[in-house]
Write a structure and sequence with these properties.
globular, binds ligand JHZ, 7-stranded mixed beta sheet
Length: 396
């Protein structure tokens, strides 16, 4: 097929989404890349055009910690109960275990984690869990297989979409998964991203934003098969995929067929769906910037809430910087007292809620809107407002 990769969205020059800047480096030139999004007409995968090596993106300074959100922890806890009840695995592997938010719900002798970012990996190790600071690849999968044999359950949340060579990812999973074992993968849903115009799901770490249709194509090539899907609310709408070896007799459940058919009906196999999305994104950019300009003109105090990787895409695409947002609040220690990539907005430590002199807070962590609104009842009661970009830019 000619031109199998169709470029449909250009989100401009972007810094690496999690490259928060130290004050002493503010004047240094940042590494930037052109963030373009493509649709592969042969397997329906949506990916970013220019990617970086895992070593560049995930090193010992990686700031993200999954334990910073109560919703993530609760979701992992619920899943751990389900796993123990339904699959009763003898041993479990987590790929991308971050600071141990999932591992902590299992017995220490039953679960192993791998996490290449040493700074977060060591947090899990300190809690007494068996973790290794390694990337998922041929070498690490061979090492784990030799040391532990096969795994009955492999879990990976928001990690596999961060690795470029998907065939290799799944070939290695197939190698280490027991014959009737289950692979559970969670990642943001492309369908939700298109429906809610959350173009900020695209940044250097998200090499892919999966649809069930596309993931199924890649898995098929690697002798794996989705047998069940669950829609979960995390990260703005994700899908939890339950995957088996093709050779296993597990029944393929209705949820899988129904998700595939919903995605096809929505148009995820068609070029025009992506072109229309790109048009909506362009108009979202203008609307969001105008909200900020209007507030600035009226001298309102505007801050940001949750300096997410996602907000790096929004701020740099819409050219919203320290002139329009006074500071960001964030609970993550490794982000505090640094500056947002590209837009150079100072990040302050979150203490006891939003200051009462703040008029508007831009929700960088919009995906935790409910959790945040519950926490900020006082600010809301006192007339404080939020700015959100999805499904379209507005004030809440
Ligand atoms: P959050 C990261 O993306 C990177 P980000 C990564 N590529 C990925 O896929 C997802 O995670 C899973 C703060 N916060 O989870 C904490 C508050 O300050 O949306 C975080 O810095 N107060 C691996 O960065 C940020 O917001 C709060 O009450 O887009 C949330 O980041 C809450 C709830 C969060 O992921």
């Amino acid at each position: 097929m000619k031109n199998k990769l169709m470029e449909f969205l250009d989100l401009g020059y972007q810094p690496l989404a999690n490259s928060f800047i130290k004050k002493s480096n503010l004047k240094k030139k940042e590494k930037k890349y052109k963030l373009k999004i493509c649709f592969d007409k042969t397997n329906y995968l949506v990916s970013i055009k220019n990617s970086f090596s895992s070593k560049t993106m995930f090193d010992h300074t990686y700031p993200y910690r999954s334990s910073m959100s109560k919703s993530v922890s609760k979701s992992f806890e619920d899943l751990s109960k389900k796993i123990n009840k339904k699959f009763k695995p003898k041993n479990i592997l987590e790929i991308g275990s971050n600071d141990g938010t999932f591992l902590k719900f299992f017995e220490k002798n039953k679960i192993v984690g791998i996490e290449p970012c040493k700074n977060v990996e060591k947090i899990t190790k300190k809690k007494g869990f068996s973790t290794y600071p390694i990337y998922w690849n041929n070498k690490s999968s061979n090492f784990l297989k030799k040391k532990f044999g096969s795994f009955d359950l492999i879990f990976s949340a928001n990690t596999l979409s961060h690795i470029k060579n998907l065939n290799n990812v799944f070939k290695n999973i197939h190698k280490i998964l027991s014959s009737d074992g289950v692979l559970i993968v969670e990642d943001p849903s492309l369908l939700e991203c298109l429906k809610t115009n959350t173009y900020d799901q695209f940044y250097n770490e998200h090499i892919y934003v999966f649809s069930t249709v596309a993931l199924n194509e890649v898995l098929k090539k690697n002798k794996l098969q989705i047998f069940k899907v669950e829609k979960i609310k995390l990260h703005g709408g994700s899908i939890r995929y339950y995957i088996k070896k093709k050779s296993s007799n597990r029944k393929i459940e209705r949820s899988f067929y129904s998700q595939i058919s919903t995605e096809i009906k929505f148009g995820l196999k068609k070029d025009k769906t992506y072109h229309k999305f790109a048009e909506r994104v362009k108009s979202s950019k203008i609307k969001l910037k105008n909200i900020f300009l209007r507030l600035k003109k009226k001298n309102y105090k505007v801050i940001g809430y949750g300096a997410t990787a996602k907000s790096t895409t929004i701020l740099n695409y819409c050219k919203i910087d320290f002139n329009l947002i006074e500071y960001f609040l964030d609970t993550t220690p490794d982000k505090q007292n640094k500056y947002t990539p590209g837009s150079k907005i100072k990040i302050l430590k979150y203490k006891n809620g939003i200051d009462k002199n703040v008029d508007y807070a831009f929700l960088g962590a919009w995906n935790f809107k409910k959790e945040i609104f519950d926490k900020e009842k006082k600010y809301i009661k006192n007339g404080g407002k939020f700015i959100i970009h999805s499904p379209y830019p507005k004030i809440l």
